[in-house]
Design brief:
Shape of chain A: elongated
Oligomer: homodimer
Number of domains of chain A: 2
Radius of gyration of chain A: 21 Å
Number of strands of chain A: 0
Order of helices and strands of chain A: HHHHHHHHH
Distance between the termini of chain A: 80 Å
DNA sequence: GTCTATACATTGATAGAC
DNA sequence: GTCTATCAATGTATAGAC
């Protein structure tokens, strides 16, 4: 093998270009979804040629996977109350800063089959952990509802940009959401004082 | 004007064909969304030609509007408790039978700009009514959260077909959802007995 | 390592024959 | 009232020049 240190700039430049393409693709996938995001548009936004994008990532779907692949989430474990707080903390985090990978996936989850599949896999483990913490007969329904609430809040805020929710502070939102999620994760209903 | 009663079958056949096209379009828009639904596929499913679909509806977007135009919903009004029950009743109804117009719109709400616009208009009035019933300082955030929960539940059940939620009975779901929504529509938190 | 040129399929939409 | 033929545009993906 000849001098590997002779051309360190080559690999570095490649990584830089690749990063620019990924950033541009992420933005476009988040804003416009899978179908409406074209390779040409990604290339233009990244300041490169469309052929180069294909050369680096192979296909549009592969590029999408690279953008949406999320780091494995930490486990949800403990009592129902503890799990609820872990979920609330996670929601607060996703409200504070835009979760790029999740948003890119969520934007296309209703219209791109591959995105729906990845989403399913992710929520399956999620459901199992919540359901296990609840431990009631209808735990699976409750876990699904917790997941549905979480989905609705993130989608409404970041993607639909619902007025009144996109401006609200994470602290306020999680405070309002706490009793709501508590009622879902507690097997015994606290009773409605009506 | 010559005999208008001579050809009653003409108009009737046209209505029948139009109805078949609308039914096919509805199914495809619900299942695949706006982008992935092609005029050709609609025509094929309806057993007619693609040109005929264009001739009847003018454009793909016009066809989409015809499919997604919903009958105006009844007002939400009364005390927070009453409004909550009205929302729960509406959710129960949408869980029992597939709400075709809403689902066609919801499937594309994240990826089709026109769908997002129509959705916005619909939820604006919704928010105003809920917010008015709550009448607290953070009423707009609460109303947006109620809407987010509603969105998450319907999407999870009918579009994402979340296991554990797509099988559950409407009665069980609304019973589980009641304390959750109550906590959002009551300005005074009932307190978490932890 | 980057870009040009292009093949190939599919789309929405139009014009006109029957 | 229904269908055939076609247009113009756009998409992904590939081959090859620089």
């Amino acid at each position: 093998m000849s001098e590997p240190e002779a051309r360190p700039a080559r690999a570095e430049q490649r990584r830089a270009t690749e990063a620019r393409i990924l950033a541009a693709a992420s933005r476009l996938f988040i804003d416009n979804g899978y179908e409406r995001t074209t390779i040409r548009a990604v290339a233009r936004a990244a300041g490169v040629d469309a052929g180069l994008v294909m050369h680096y990532f192979g296909s549009k779907q592969a590029l999408f996977q690279r953008v949406t692949q999320a780091s494995p989430m930490p486990e949800l474990t403990g009592t129902p109350e503890e799990v609820t707080e872990q979920i609330l903390a996670r929601i607060a985090q996703m409200l504070a800063v835009e979760p790029a990978q999740s948003l890119a996936l969520l934007r296309s989850v209703l219209t791109h089959p591959e995105a729906a599949e990845v989403w399913q896999e992710g929520t399956d483990r999620y459901h199992a952990e919540i359901s296990h913490a609840i431990g009631a007969a209808d735990a699976d329904v409750r876990a699904a509802l917790v997941s549905a609430v979480w989905l609705g809040v993130i989608v409404s805020r970041h993607l639909l940009k619902s007025p009144g929710l996109s401006d609200a502070g994470p602290q306020l939102v999680t405070d309002l959401l706490r009793p709501c999620l508590r009622s879902l994760t507690r097997a015994d209903l606290p009773g409605t004082t009506g």
